[in-house]
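User: Predict structure, ligand adenosine-5'-diphosphate.
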Amino acid sequence: MTVLSDKLTSLLGRKTAAALAEALDIHTVADLLRHYPRRYAERGELTDIAGLEIGEHATVMARIERVNKRRMRNKPGWIVEMTITDGRRRLECAFFGNAHQRERELQLGKAGLFAGKVTAFRNKLQLANPEYQMLDQDDDSADGSRLDDFLGAIIPVYPAASGMPSWSIARCVRQVLDTLEREEDPMPRELRKRYGFVELFDALHGIHRPQDQGALDNARERLKWDEAMAIQLIFAQRRHSAGSRPAPACPPKPGGILESFDKRLPFDLTSGQREVGEHIADDLCGEHPMNRLLQGEVGSGKTVVALRAMLQVVDAGRQAAMLAPTEVLAAQHARSLREMLGDLGQAGELGAADEATKVTLLTGSMSTKERKQALLDAASGAAGIVVGTHALIQDTVSFADLGFVVVDEQHRFGVEQRDALRTRGANDTSPHVLVMTATPIPRTVAMTVYGDLETSALRVMPVGRSPISTTVVPVNEKPAWLDRVWQRVREEVGKGHQAYIVCPRIGDEPPSDKSDKRPPLAVLDVAAELAAGPLAGLRIGILHGRLPSDEKDAVMRAFAAGKLDVLVATTVIEVGVNVPNATAMVIMDADRFGVSQLHQLRGRVGRGDVPGVCLLVTEAIDGTSTRERLAAVESTTDGFELSRLDLELRREGDILGAAQSGKRSSLKLLSLLQDEETIAEARLCAQEIVTADPALATHPGLAQLVSSVVDDDRAEYLEKS
Ligand code: ADP
Ligand code: MG
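Assistant: Predicted complex:
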């Protein structure tokens, strides 16, 4: 009999096992059985072709609409060309070699499974040299088994790779399931009963070889719960261990700097700011650290909330640190905090208020002298507020008494970095932590990605923003539109406004040799071309991460002062940059950016009282999921709505960044969009279990569930958002 921990080699043979390992990193029975079908095809139903991703390995059930054999142009031999269709859209296929066999197997009008890498050729989607398995094939296929023999009415379609097509995986799964032993279920019986879940053994059968829809649904419910539970148990344990550490208590001080600040605030706080502010103020009084996430779109007024919290900490005689993802942002934060504080932030200077504190900027590229002074300010406690990049949490920076850390733009700051903060308080206490993000995320994502944090949101904007209209510019289909883009930039500049042009790359890196894809457009190239051509005569500046920091600062100041018309930049301008006179945002190779990044970028315009325009220039082909994502950005400027659309468009596993890192995600079935209830329920259940038994000593099965996830991905999915 077979158990989950068995290696596949002895079961499937060395050759097949090696192929699975090579193609899909599948080594054990558990790996294989956790490689769930991506979807199911029903016999007689064709797969929707829309939404394929260029470069992905896809398996589609389709019908042959056209087959044609012709001689190759510059080589001897034949090429078989074929068009397959789902009834609406088409995929072009080409086969090189074996022309006679192909002709025999690929009959017009027949349906089958086709698998291969999706490419684009002359603006059409293509599967080059696909592997295939015809459904109603007359003769036996090469390996002697026919598709019909081992697949029921519901046909699983697996995430596949070249050399290991979906139907071969199905065959391996069947072989393993046939001898699988019913082992003890890791989920305690009482939980299984409470929620009415089927046993793991039955769930694994049901997900791979469903007898009917009901069996499939039961299997999914159970396996989803396992995924939700594993993650929520980890978070519950994290919350438990982080929350039980000692923290510096920071009760508010009557007549302190916070009260003075509130008195001179030139505006009323919004109801959201007041409410979130009260939560934070309460948390800061506590003997255990606050770990809170504050969401709020760009301009929603997070900085004031953070500053007021920092002042409460300063009032308690401790220090606050504010971390930003880039030096540009850190410098900007320091400036705006000083501005907001006025004489309350000028301790040590002439004319400072009595209760004043000092705001110190500390970045890596400061001169040795400046840096020394800043380090001294932090270590002596002279600085109540220290602003810097994430490097600030490095060990070389010491604080007299760090009570509170604000992290701006959380999506660039992972769990590990947050962990590094834990021991930075005086006497080995854990400072309170507030992380802020302008990327709106649905509740379920917050519970999953930031599950170790309490969450708050600012949903109301304090001051009205001007509308931003967004347009996708598909330069492949409408080449003339690009001229119109530059004309539009000239018009904006003509009206006295300014424009950003964003490119994915800087352009000073050595050329990469092996890529067949065009490299992304680069700031340096685009700026030069525009200056010499379409935007000749305009004052064009350049900004990117590898400029020396004083130069960056100078460029930003020049742009803010209106001394530049156009700023060609990388995403360094993504967050926090505030130039109300900038009204146009052109994003080159927009398909190279994620949805939330595009949304962030476009938030740079429409900040004044003039409407903003955002143009997304792309060569992506119509009908791809890339274009669907751009269309989503075009369709709405509501960040929460957009984050939902984005989630819908992303593939399983992408959500937690597994696709980018090339690693398998632990979330295979659980949908952050559709399984809100499961996730919320699992969170409660996990909290209950961990409160009673933090180490899961009485729940070996659950402990094993947790360690399988943690070991698998090294908790990597916790890092990315
Ligand atoms: P965020 O950091 O969330 O992007 P900021 O804190 O920078 O937003 O706030 C954006 C602008 O709105 C700032 O100029 C800030 O002074 C102003 N602001 C913040 N809160 C209010 C309020 N309650 N009423 C009016 N203006 C506000
Ligand atoms: Mg901000």
